[in-house]
Amino acid sequence: MGCIFCQNRETSLEGRGERVTEADLAAIMLGLQAVGCHNINLVSPTHYVPQILEMVAIAAGEGLSIPLVYNTGTSESSETLALLDGIVDIYLPDAKYADDRVARELSRVPGYVDAMKRALVEMQGQVGDLVCEGGIARRGLIVRHLVLPGGIAGGCELMRFLADEVSRDAYVNIMDQYRVVRQASPAELDRSPCLAQIQRPVTRQEHARVVECARRGRAAPVRALRTCRSAVQCAAPGGRQVEYGAHGASPLPPACPGQIRNIQ
User: Fold this and answer.
1) Is residue 113 part of a domain?
2) Are residues 76 and 185 in the same domain?
3) pLDDT digit string, tens, across residues 3-14
4) Based on the domain organization, do 46 and 134 belong to the same domain?
5) What is the pLDDT of residues 109-133, one digit of tens each?
6) Which of 3, 124, 139, 187 is exposed most, by the fewest CB atoms within 10 A?
7) What's the pTM value of the predicted model, to 2 decimals?
8) Looking at the DSSP assignment, which residues form a beta bridge with residue 140?
């Protein structure tokens, strides 16, 4: 996917990174396990699935046992997901858009909505609802949705889909951190009505509306605390939302039942 508003452009669109072999990556994963990481988080990994399968086979043979998290924009085919069945422990997919026109304009991906819906149903079938042991997520599905200005992403429609077609006990990370990463030119705005609509931050009211839609659908809303090296996610069953500050501004609440440490 090529989201024109990507919040992580340096790594996702500008090609920054380091080349490693499958054996190198397996060694990195084992090193993270050795220092106490709760899981291994593979971010936007779909185009590397063959290499991931080889890497996991190497690491598992040498003792890797912590959960593998598959962190994706959710446009995988059924054939790709079938290869991951029994390999991935926690799926962390985005439900980005409820409208293909918006997906084409903002992420340059055709046919996104149907592909995303099929993928979410398949992921749920593979790993089920989120399971935590000792306050740490071990297996299951956590769906993320980034609220966009003006409700252009269709958050409420997506919450209804999750409740009706995926699971009424689904955990949902409803994110409010959208920001304008660059000002679009007048020519770009003329070409893309969707781009013109997102030239401002999301309001509290826009975010709250999607959270309320999730509550009505009985999906359990989630807020995320992100730092530069890790992410902790906290959700309460039964539609009760747990909120806390961003970037370490406030501590985790004592009642927080689900935590994931993501190393990226």
Assistant:
1) yes
2) yes
3) 666 666 555 556
4) no
5) 889 999 999 999 999 999 999 999 8
6) 187
7) 0.79
8) 90
